[in-house]
Amino acid sequence: MEAKSRIRLIRFFRSLFPSRWVVLVLLFLLIRLPLLFLGLPTTLSELHYVLVGERLSNGFMLYQDLYDTTGPLSAAVYWFLDWLAPRSYLLHRLVATALVAYQAFLLNFIFNRNQVHPYKSYVPALLYLLFGSIFFELDVLSPLLLGHTFVILAVYSFTAISKEATNAGRLFKAGFMLGVAALFYLPLVWFLVLGFFAIIYFASAAFRSTLLMLTGFVFPFTVVLTYFLYQNALVPFLEQGLTWSWQFTFTFGLPGPQVLLVAAIPLGILALSFLSLPLISLGPNYQARFLQFMLIWVIMVVLVLISGHDGSAKGLILLMPLISYFGIFLFSLWGNRVWIAEILFLVIVAAVVAMRYNPLNLVYPSLGIKPELVQVQDSPKYRQIAGEKLLVLGPDLNYYQNNSLGSPYLRWDLAKPYFGRLNHYDALFTVLQDLRKDLPSYIVDQQNLMPELQYKLPLVFQRYEKVENGPFYKRVR
Q1: CA distances (Å), 221 to each of 66, 246, 303, in order?
Q2: CB contact at 8 A, 382 and 399
Q3: 286 and 347 in a common domain
Q4: Domain contains 373
Q5: Average pLDDT score over residue span 342-358
Q6: Tally of domains in the chain
């Protein structure tokens, strides 16, 4: 009787009954939601995205009045969320939760519709939702998460095409979705290569199909370029929104080894799944082609991770489709010894929950993971000023947690070309033009630049006087 109950447990999600779908959603919410409502500290990434939305909702133009490399469509989402609920981190996290669930079930539908696995089930969605909740940084509504949704929508269109010449709409739509994904997060443009292989594997008339896909891909870029052209912000968009993303420089919130520790469980399961592939016999020829397609997907994930600026645990979302697809083969390997797969699954659930919730504050210290590196710090020095418009001359975003952005200079790496070249006339002129329109109430001088700025740009910076406590300068006239 005990063995039968174990078999039923491991096979529960191998059925497509609606009850399995409901239980899966409840399980996901049970793992995901408590941490959202327990008052988890805000991450620096979330603060960044909220400041972007707030600045745009105040009527400023992205790239022109806000120097940032966030994709234009991601910035539009942050603007809309700020319009709905200003500075609502909970709303950001709820939207991120909804997107992870949508991606999981859409990918599960793609796999079942195309019969790419030995059996139809909800197991791919289960693995996606489980590993998609392994670390609190995956709760962040990042541009990568937003764009990844449209990558999966593109795959949905690619895998729906047939050998008949009736695929023009689907191919255009697939290219369009890839273009939209790249406008959310530019490194996702690498998935256009995956689109070429999708045409080879799943379509006919490869040259014509490729042109249709490329036309769909270019269309959203054309619309966005036209918009910024009419807003007199085309050059800033080309410099910050497109060119900057290909500098291949990383900003690590968590150090690389700590990110690898967080990713150890999903990477381990993915490695075991790869090792199980030679032991699995694929059925129809389509399943073999889909396997090749997913192996190309692995390469695209690596290229996107290398191209992205943000070396953080948020990039784990790119691994979820791979785990969902290849993980099935690992759990199908055991034949009648289903209890092995059951034990493995329970161990995975326990490990994911432990990594997410850090029970008794034991997991992170024992692994050497320091989550405070990516979280907003609640320190007295950051509470000295509240409800004001700031210019922070330095990389520390923590000063903005109780204040708003009072200048275009949100990212210090984009401000350095100006404040690091104060002996050049063009840099001084740009700073003057950027600040004289809307002066911040306070300046936080982390780089000790104010004496030189007051000397070289007195029209703006002589209006500020140093406050006794901290690196603060207050506008007094």
Answers
A1: 20, 17, 21
A2: yes
A3: yes
A4: no
A5: 89
A6: 2
